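Minimal example, chain plus xylulose-1,5-bisphosphate.
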Amino acid sequence: MAELSALIFDVDGTLADTERDGHRVAFNRAFADAGLDWEWSVPLYGELLAVTGGKERIRFYLDRFNQQFQRPEDLEGFIAELHSSKTAHYTRMLAEGLIPMRSGVRRLLREAVDAGIRLAIATTTTPANVSALLEHSLAADAKHWFEVIAAGDIVPAKKPAPDIYTWAMQQMALKPEHCVALEDSENGVIAAREAGIHSILVTINDYTADHDFNGAGLVLDQLGEPDAPFQVIRGEVGDKRYVDLDLIRAFHAGS
Ligand code: XBP
Ligand code: MG
């Protein structure tokens, strides 16, 4: 049986609930700054989340929901500028401490670090967003807990393409059977699975609760804490009430 060597974490929706009150608000602020009357409501943003990557999402919005917009000649440059303004807004919100980590995340990460389990991040979001989230919502030195931070445009094809997971595992010289992936969305599960990872643990959130998680062995509402247990949506947890390394090892061994 393959040994468990590493946990690979998605960021948005998994480490923290960043989308509705973070990314979405930052996009809207960037639009307002640019003099655009675009407003991404909570339900519209749910539809836009079908496409990962902020620049890709803006383009999807124009293609699908705002076809009447007069596109500038350099649409790519226009989107890139809007997106960099969005990143500035988003990282400022993180620096203000507005987005907490999800339940159980800090505890599990600390336990993994102490046990010598290797940690990585595989996300489609911009690297600056990951650094800001880790620093302001986790710990000043949290970036160093992770051996590899695979993020954003480091690979051209974003999730559900497997590339970001494949890249992270290559950097660590690790085979997929030694990894557990932690995700919150269908696109993330497809990406991890296509990269060859069999042990995929999902913690859902409001935007992803209805996704198809057939590719994941364990689906929970949250990692949980001793005084705030998880609810099991799919999978076997024995008598566990929150996710710790014991449970992750048992899950990995059985998948
Ligand atoms: C995250 C995303 C990202 C963020 C925005 O998906 O889709 O696009 O919403 O980030 P996942 P940027 O959790 O599957 O990695 O604007 O920096 O692209
Ligand atoms: Mg996610």
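The first strand starts at residue 6 and ends at 9. The radius of gyration is 18 Å.
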